[in-house]
Amino acid sequence: MQRLLKRPGYRLYAPDSPEARVLLDEQGLSPADLDSALARLERTEGKTVRTIVGINEDGVFGTSREGWHPDLPDAGHQPFIPLLWIRVLELLGRVPGGSTARFVEDGTLPDDVQHSATIDRIAS
How far apart, in whole angstroms, are the C-alpha atoms of residue 81 and residue 28? Predict the structure, then answer.
């Protein structure tokens, strides 16, 4: 994992890449958990993620376009839907409701995730 952090720039890793699997593991998540969180996002907020563009230390980035890839002529016109890890955990019911809003407002993390290395990096 340390080699990921030493690379310059803001990177997104393909959802099926070894790097993404490491990042999911660090959060205690599986690809099925991620699918469940995205399904709940659609049910509760009406936001549909049809393609996961990438995963990184901050969270998951998707788009509502099915089959999106960077080589599409209008790929840059489709906004990404960002989901911080804390939001994914909230959608799964693993942290209390409202945890994302509190984190965005004042950096407060729920006790359940206080010691997660990735979440701590986001908070700093």
Answer: 22
